[in-house]
Automatic annotation (TrEMBL):
This is XRE family transcriptional regulator. The lineage of its organism: Bacteria, Bacillati, Actinomycetota, Actinomycetes, Streptosporangiales. SMART domains: HTH_XRE (SM00530). PROSITE patterns: HTH_CROC1. The keyword DNA-binding applies.
């Protein structure tokens, strides 16, 4: 994941015409850390990836995906590198393209004892609880969700997740419109084609 993030981060930053200093200012991530990430070093956290997504105004998949496979897709959760945050473990499973937009599918586990805060990022966030009780705060509104419950909201709004009485297992879907995606002609090519 580090090598893919390194290449995509550099591609996205240059595609937006940003220096490392400007991306550091926008993302509130140190310039040295950004330089390490572009070099394929360090361990990016959920907070780091979401901050970069917000600052660059691109979906997370534009930073983490190598390319979309053709044919049947099988993803083994145990083989996927986990993005860890203060309270959440995310396993990126798949990106589904439709009408120029994208829906990213994640296995999301919320650990008890901490709150996962997000300042917001591009897209629409959808969460479906599979097991446990999940507290979700969006702006000043708080809701509790149980197994089978769903919440969706504009992910630009500040939001947080907390496991209320033990671990929570859920499916997280991040939905992006065609205007929110970078267009990469070839995921391995150094150049970038701008937005539609």
């Amino acid at each position: 994941m580090r090598d893919v993030l390194a290449a995509n981060l550099r591609r996205a930053r240059l595609g937006r015409g940003l220096s490392l200093s400007e991306l550091s200012r926008r993302s509130k991530i140190g310039k040295a850390t950004l330089s390490q990430l572009e070099a394929g070093a360090g361990n990016p956290t959920i907070e780091t990836v979401f901050s970069l997504s917000r600052a660059l105004e691109v979906p997370i998949s534009d930073l983490l995906d190598q390319q979309l496979p053709s044919g049947p897709t099988v993803v083994r959760g145990a083989e996927v590198e986990v993005l860890r945050g203060a309270a959440v473990d995310l396993r990126p499973l798949h990106g589904i393209e439709a009408d120029g937009g994208m829906v990213e599918v994640y296995d999301q586990q919320v650990r008890p004892g901490a709150r996962q805060d997000s300042l917001g990022h591009v897209g629409v966030e959808h969460t479906i609880v599979q097991a446990g009780r999940l507290g979700v705060r969006v702006d000043d509104q708080e809701v509790e969700l149980g197994p089978g419950d769903y919440i969706g909201f504009d992910a630009l709004r500040p939001h947080s997740y907390v496991a209320l009485d033990g671990p929570v297992r859920s499916v997280l879907l991040l939905q992006y419109g065609s205007d929110q995606r970078l267009r990469l002609t070839d995921p391995h090519a150094p150049g970038l084609v701008g937005k539609d």
